[in-house]
Write a structure and sequence with these properties.
This protein is α/β, with parallel strands linked by helices. It contains 8 helices and 10 strands. The strands form 2 sheets. It has a 7-stranded parallel beta barrel with strand order 1-2-3-4-5-6-9, surrounded by 5 helices. A two-stranded antiparallel ribbon has the order 7-8.
C-alpha cells in the first residue's frame, strides 16, 4: 500500500476568548497541512476564533472542516456526556452550521465534518448515533466528507449509506490490536522524527506498531496530528518533510481519494 498523495489534517482554533490551547499558533500550523478541523464553540473555539481560522484557511488554500464536540468547555470535549443520539446530532448540526457561515463569508466551501475527542470515539462505537449523523449529513451536506477511523461504526454506516468518507491515521496517538486509537487525556512529549517515521511507514507499507507490540495493517486517506499535542509544530513539520522527501504529495481529499 504505497500512497503517492495523502491529506494532512490538524485541529485548529482550539482557544476561547483570550485563552489559547497548545504550544503553537494556528498561523504556524496552517501552512503545514491540507485540511483544517476547526473548533466550533462547544469544546473550544468562539466566533472570533472561527473567523480568524477560516480567513487563514482561505489565504493558504486549506480544506475547511467542522470539528464539533460535546458541550464541554471545561473538559475540552474529552468527557463523555450522556445524551440521546438525536440530541448529539442536533448539537453537531448547530456547530457545523456556524462554521459553514464563516466559510461562506470568506468564500471557503465546507469540505468535511470530523467530530472531536470523546464525541468522535462515542460515534465510532455507536451505530445508532453514526446512522442518525449520516442521515442528517445526507440532507444537509451529501457531498461532505466525514472523517473517521477505518474500524469505526461511523465508517461502516457512512459507506453503506453512500456518504463519502476519509479514514484517518493518527500520527500522535497509539493504536491497539483492534485498529482503534488509544484515547488519552494528556499526551507525553513525542519525538518528531519517530512520529514522522511511523507516518511514512504507514503510507509506504500500510502498517503500524500497536501498544501490544504487534504490527497491524492500517488503511487511511488522511494523517492527523493535534495542535494540543506537546511539540505539535515540530511534529507537523517533521511529518510533512518526511512525506515530501519520499515523493508523497500532500493535498486535500477529493471524491477520487474518498471511499
Amino acid at each position: 500500500m504505497y500512497r503517492s498523495t495523502i491529506d494532512l489534517n490538524c485541529d485548529l482554533g482550539e482557544g476561547y476568548g483570550h485563552w489559547t490551547y497548545g504550544d503553537a499558533p494556528d498561523s504556524e500550523l496552517m501552512p503545514l497541512i491540507s485540511s483544517a478541523n476547526v473548533a466550533t464553540g462547544y469544546h473550544a473555539g468562539d466566533p472570533n476564533q472561527m473567523d480568524a481560522v477560516v480567513r487563514l484557511a482561505a489565504e493558504i488554500g486549506v480544506g475547511l472542516g467542522a470539528h464539533p464536540g460535546y458541550k464541554d468547555l471545561q473538559g475540552f470535549g474529552r468527557r463523555t456526556i450522556a445524551a440521546r443520539p438525536d440530541e448529539l446530532v442536533n448539537d453537531i448540526l448547530y456547530q457545523t452550521g456556524a462554521l459553514r457561515e464563516f466559510g461562506r463569508r470568506h468564500n471557503v466551501p465546507l469540505q468535511h465534518i470530523k467530530p472531536h475527542g470523546a464525541l468522535y470515539m462515542t460515534a465510532a462505537a455507536d451505530a445508532d448515533l453514526s446512522r442518525q449523523l449520516v442521515e442528517a449529513m445526507q440532507r444537509t451536506g451529501p457531498d461532505l466528507f466525514i472523517y473517521c477511523m477505518s474500524v469505526s461504526e461511523t465508517y461502516r454506516v457512512a459507506r453503506e449509506a453512500g456518504q463519502p468518507t476519509i479514514r484517518e491515521f493518527y500520527a500522535d496517538r497509539d493504536y491497539d490490536n483492534s485498529g482503534s486509537i488509544v484515547f488519552a487525556r494528556k499526551m507525553r512529549r513525542l519525538e518528531p522524527a519517530e512520529i514522522a517515521e511511523k507516518c511514512l511507514r504507514a503510507c509506504v507499507d500500510g502498517k503500524v506498531r500497536t501498544v501490544e507490540g504487534d504490527d497491524i495493517e492500517i488503511e487511511f486517506e488522511s494523517i492527523c496530528f493535534h495542535s494540543d499535542t506537546p511539540g505539535a509544530l515540530k511534529i507537523g513539520t517533521a511529518v510533512r518533510q518526511a512525506l515530501l522527501d519520499n515523493g508523497i504529495r500532500i493535498a486535500p481529499p477529493s471524491r477520487q481519494t474518498a471511499v
